[in-house]
Structure formats: structure tokens, C-alpha cells
Specification:
The protein is α+β, with helices and mostly antiparallel strands and about 625 residues long. About 40% of the residues lie in helices and about 15% in strands. The chain contains 19 helices and 17 strands. Strands 9-10-11-13-12 form a 5-stranded antiparallel beta sheet, with helices on one face. Strands 1-4-3-2 form a 4-stranded mixed beta sheet. Helix 5 packs across helix 7. The longest helix is centred in the C-terminal third of the chain and has 42 residues.
Length: about 625
Amino acid sequence: MWSKLFRKLGGKRRDHRQLYVAGSVGFETLAATLVERDIDHTFLHWPGAEVAWPSGEDIVLLVADDGLPKIAGLLRSRARPGDLRCTLYSVGGLRGSDRNGVAYLPVRRSRELLDAVRAQPAPRLASDAQRLMVISAEAVYHLGPASGLASDTAVGEDSATSPYVQVIEALNARCGLWPLSQRFGLEELDDRLAAAGWSPFSDTMLKLSGVNPWLKSRLQDSVHDSVPGLAVFLIRERGLAHLDALRGTLTRHGFDVLCDMPIEGAHRDEVADQIRGGNWGRGPFPCSGGLPSRLLVAHDVYPDRSPSKASGASEMVDNARVFAVKEQMRRQVNRGVPASQHCNPVHSSDNAMQAAEYLGVVAPERMEEVLASARQRNEAFVTPFPVLADLSKHARRAKVELIDFHGRQAICKTFRPGRERFLEREVKARELGSSLPEVSQILAVGPSYLVFEWYENSLPSILSPKPLFYPHGLLPIWAIERLRSLILHYRRLGYECIDFNPHNVIYDPCKGLKVIDFEYLQPGQERNSLKGNYAWYPVPDTFPGDIPPTTQYRPYLRRWLPYTGLPRFMCLYSFPRPLLILVRHVTLIGMTLAGAKRLGRRRLRRFLKGRASGAGALR
């Protein structure tokens, strides 16, 4: 029935429904019918109320979520002479009974309103004090300056003539909830609502800030006091079966889990009521992911401050990595599942302030401990030298910066907490490769950082020949021979250069070829051959050490061939240079054709995208 009424309203998502009660039915019959049908409800406004509703409705009705389908037959979407204007809200802000895309009131407060009148006969009417809180919340959070209330930061209507000011003052005079002499401005009402537990959570206020810009400034003031890098991931019921994989995703992206605990029983319902506006429905997915069932409080000592490109990310996001992780978690859980059963298995905080807020709801007893740990980790990750430039790319294990090292330029690599083994491998690589001119030099070693000699990178100047339609040229034959020797050197000592590829190589015009990254150098077996080396061959699943995902699928073809122009076989053994040059000429033809094909595909995609955009604009 409710879906039928929704279709009558046009089938589009519109909130703050304007519905009508037939004049022939009237308010008294409506109130009695709601009680007879056992629909949990309360009237926030009704005909004959001594204080009018600010926006002029005849009836404002709040119902429990499960009562929404039962009420459809009592209301209609088109007005007829004598009908009563009715605005309908549900506790959880379900589709068609929300306000600005969220629940009209905080879910816990809505439930309290229903509990207060459940035992009453018809009509079940809210008290003056309850109506005062409801109208104040509507004015402050849904309308802001548009309500006409005075504000320290926003300019609205003349507050003296605002219907909201008049109604709030009239209701307060009747119930005496607040001192009559105090100012009823946005800031003052916000403070009073927050003290009484009537202010929505920051995630809801963030959504409302799209229609209420006054809220945005209030949120930004709060963000400044947060602990950078803190994030909360609430794993929903459908995601629990994948919990280990989801934890692994966090670790791979540089997060460390500071708190991991289940959310069970009645506490789960309490958490669900307070977070996400109380709405844990399916959203844009075919199925709901269920209620929040696991708390993962994670910390990232090096947040990605770049604007997030993820769907649904707002300007209040303070770490784009959070949304990248969340999207990957969704793909992990939905992989191999029919599209009709896809769901959203995880909800995350948008920023550090919101993360602390979530933690205070789910595990307030852990708040002090977690925040102290996050602050300590942030302090330990501070670079101990003046930073001239940030050279970091993904920074999942370490940040890389150009520093002033006692009056000279150098590179500082600061490792994330718990990634000290990667630092130790860098040091070990220099010890084992001290005789190799290609191994970059370490100037200083700290508890969590390394300082390297700085080299000018002119590698593009020696990459030749360059295939047509290709972004870069090929390594010189002599450079390939040196890199072969380096891999073989470490294999003879019983070490594998895992994840080693041309992106770890630079060329300094004065000091020559240099290898700058040995984070995945790990013990293997002593070998006097390049065949099977883990830089060019997939690392077996049975390998006991760290295995980056990029090394398990044809690493030579994807990462080396575009720079060598030679089949792997011809890099395993020493061949005459003239033969290698001849083979590369043949390879260049194939690489040119492949580059032309990629270029053509890109241009076709751009063309089709442009046509689609043009067609959309015409519509």
C-alpha cells in the first residue's frame, strides 16, 4: 500500500511528504483508526492545537517504521476541498517519510516520543515540551538560517517576525522548559538540544549541511579538535563471514587496528539507532548489509588529504584512503555473489571527529585508551628533519620526503608503526650489496626512519628507443645487464629481490644507475641462476614472508617487458648485444601496435563519454 502511494507521488525520491487526510474522515476518525489498527504513533501537531505549527500544516504525524505500510490507505497524495494537510514522518526516516534524506528526528528521541503516549487513548498527542524540542530541532538542523532564527555566523530573516521564533517562544512560555529571558538563536538552541540528547550525530549533520550551510561551519570547528588519522569501520552482518579478509585490506592500505570488538544483542540495536541516522536499509544496493555487528577502530598515521573520488564522499572527508578501503571491502564481499544479492557490508566514519563520535557510542570505555594510542603514534611518525618536499606515492608502508640533512639535500623514508621489518630489509640490502655501485647509500638510521643520499633522477633521458604511442622508452642494454647482475648477486647470497622492478631504479648523470627500494628483499635459497627469481617469476603461495599482490601474476610481462623489450628468456642468460638489439627491433613493432590499440580505445571511450554527456544535457 505504501509503495502504491509512493508511486502516486511520482516515484521519485522526495522527502517531507505533503499528504492529505480526507475531510470526510477528519482528525478524530484518523486518530481513532490509528489506535484500532495498533499503529505506534504520536501527533506532533493537530487541528485546534493552541500553538500553530510554523509551516502551517494541519497535522504532523510521527509513526513507527513498521506502521508505515498500514497507514497508506488513510492518506492521499492529492488535495480535495475540505482535506487536512498532513506531514508524515517515520522513526527511521524510511523512504517517503524522511526529511532532507534523513530521519526527521534522532531515532532514540522519536522512540521516546512514541513510548510516552503508547498507553494513551486516541488522540495520542505530544506535550508542549515535546513539541518545543521537535520544532527547535527542525529549525536548527533541517532549516538553519532559513528558519529565521538569529545566528552569530549566518544571516537569516528578521528573527522577530519568524514563525519559528514565535512558536518556540509561545511553547516555552507554556511549558517553562527554558528560562524566558534567554536568546533563542541557532547556537543557543543547538547547545540546549545537544545537552538534552536531541542533536543528530555528525554523520547526519554532514548530510543536512547540504541544505543547511550553517551546520557546515559548526562541523568544521569540531573537526579541528580531532585526532588525525582515526577511522571507524562498522562491519555489518553480511560482512562478518569475510572479517579476516577485511582486516587484511586495512593492513595493506596502511591502517592499524587499535580496537576490534563485536557488537551484540541489545547493544547492537542501540548502536544502530544512533549511527547512520538509524537507517540501515539497503540504500542503493539490492539488499541490506544488516545491522552493525563488528567494530574496527583503525588508525592511519599518514592520512591521504587529497579529495576523495569515491562515490558518496563529502568535502568533510579528511582521509581519502578510508573511502578507497571501503570500496574495496564492498567488492570483496560482493565478489562471486549474484548482482541481485549485492549489499553494503561496511559503514565507515567520514573523518576523525566522526570516528571518535562512533567510538563513544559503541565502546565508550575504550575511548581514552584508543585516542591516547593514536596521538602517540602520530607523534612518533613526525619527520625528525626539516622537510623540503613530500615525494610519497601510496605511502602504505612508509612516507618519502626530501629533507635538509645537516645542510645537504637527502631523502628520508619514515616507516609506519609495525612496518619496521621493511626498514630492516633496506639496511640488510645495503650490507649485502655494499660492493655494488647500483645500490643507493644510507646516511643515517633511526628507530623508524632511514636517510638516503639524494640522487638526480634523469632516467627518462636514457630510455631509448621509444615505441610509438608508448609513454616511455626502453632501458639501455647495459642497464639491463647491470640489473641482471644485481638480482643474481643477491640470489647467490640466498636472498630474493621480491617486487623489484624498473620503477625502483633511477639514473644520476654523475653517479650512474641506482636502485632505491629493497623493502621486499627476503631470504630464499642460494641460487647461481636467474631462472625462477622472484623479481621476474610469480612468488609461490607457500613463501613464508611478505608477498605483495603485484608479484603473483606474470610480474615480468607486466612490469619488466615494457622496459626491456626482451622476452624473459633472453634476460635469463648472456646473449650477444647485437642479437638482443635485433630482438628488440622486432619487439618494438608489437609494442607500437599495442600502444596504438590502447590509444584508440581511450579515444573511443572519450568520444562515447562526450556523446553521452551531450545527450544528457539535451534532455
